[in-house]
Amino acid sequence: MKKTLTIILSYLLLIFNSNVKPEEDNKNLKIGLIAPLSGEYKELGNSLLYSLQLALSEIGDENVFVIPRDTGFNNKDKLNSAIQDIKSQGVKVIIGPMSFEDFDEVKKYSDITFISPSNITPEFTNNIISVGISLESQLSTIINFIKKKKKKRTIIMFPQNQYSELIENKLKKLNLDNLKKFKYDPNPEVLTGEIEILTNYSQRKRNLELRKKMFEDKEDEQSIRQLERLEQLYTLGDVNFDSVIIIDFGNNLKSVLTSLVYTDVSQDKVLFTTVNQWFDQSIFYENTIKNLFYPSVNYKEFKKYNENYYNKYKSFPNEITILTYDAIGLIYYAWKKNGKINSVNDFSFKSKIKGKIGTFSFKDKKVTQDLEIYKTDKNRFIKF
């Protein structure tokens, strides 16, 4: 299988490079790609190449060419060399960079527009447009959902780490700074104790024990029934919030969910929402949660993309590749609409753009995605 993929990759590189014509004219659209095609992240780079080839085959325009170059990982010299090589071939738009650390480096190429699959900021940053699923878009979708569910007391939960300040700044920009915030220690052993305090768990446990004692020595039928009902409970009394937004993912998210359920937060009364989900099926095995809601890309299109990719390359793509797949379509749309691409201003569209992952808005030099709400239910992802 690895030998087959290597042959395919070599063929793609040959096709990409042989498709580039030396003359400069408006008949051809040349798109650069800077990606880690070597080193520890080369599988990601290769997956990006496959996704672009898939996009090109679906566009079916022989005047569109991609010029890929290897940047390695965290290698400024290699990054600059790759960009200069692509630039020398008359390219005005490049897909990349992948990481925020490279943003400052590519800003100096002011005559080139970079379409980055990162989700750091929705605003156009100098000559960089981020098309990743931004936290701003996700939070806006969740807040609207919470309002529709008529929840009034929301807590935004996120870990205390190197991203805490970034999250807090985004909350301020979205005017969500007035919502109650709860920063927790990502260490699961510490986390449970913190959530016990948040949920007033000890007092609610005492409330239950005190109520049970009121009926323990009574023998009338009503008292017996009351005691039997109380024996089914773990705590008595509600928490002081009716919805939570958890800004976390992976095992950390599962630890938070487990701690909330352990402290007897009612899933019938409290709405559980989160971000940064790509239809991760491992969440199905987190049996403590009945319903978890989150905003995401279009599930049907996501499945279709994965299936098409697998059918062609016999492997599954990295999640981020659907963003670069959509980036090709976005660039192609801008080129056909404007007849050229000279700067980020060519991407200031008045109308919304529909892609595989959803619908984009590019108003006031800010990228916003129209996301949909999904929930996990009985080992399925269901559009709400």
Describe this structure in words.
With about 375 residues, the chain is an alpha/beta fold. It has two domains: about 1-135 and about 300-370, Response regulator (Rossmann fold, 3-Layer(aba) Sandwich); about 135-200 and about 240-295, Response regulator (Rossmann fold), CATH 3.40.50. The chain is built from twelve helices and 15 strands. A five-stranded parallel β-sheet has the order 2-1-3-4-5, with helices on both faces. A four-stranded parallel β-sheet has the order 7-6-8-9, sandwiched between helices. The radius of gyration is 25 Å and the shape is elongated. About 35% of the residues are buried. The model is unreliable at about 1-15 and about 15-25 (pLDDT under 50).
On the 0 to 100 scale, the average pLDDT is 86
Order of helices and strands, N to C? HEHEHEHEEHEHEHHHEHEEHHEEEEE
Q: Count the helices. How many?
A: 12
Q: What's the number of extended β-strand segments?
A: 15
- CATH architecture title of the largest domain: 3-Layer(aba) Sandwich
Task: Provide the CATH topology of the largest domain.
Answer: Rossmann fold
Report the span from N to C terminus: 39 Å
Can you give the helix content as a percent range?
A: 40-55%
Radius of gyration: 25 Å
Shape: elongated
How do the strands of the widest beta sheet line up side by side? 2-1-3-4-5
Q: What's the number of domains?
A: 2
CATH C-level category of the largest domain: Alpha Beta
The fraction of residues assigned to DSSP E strands is 15-25%
Largest sheet: 5 strands, parallel
Q: Which regions contain 5 or more consecutive residues with pLDDT less than 50?
A: 1-15, 17-24
CATH level-four homologous superfamily name of the largest domain: Response regulator
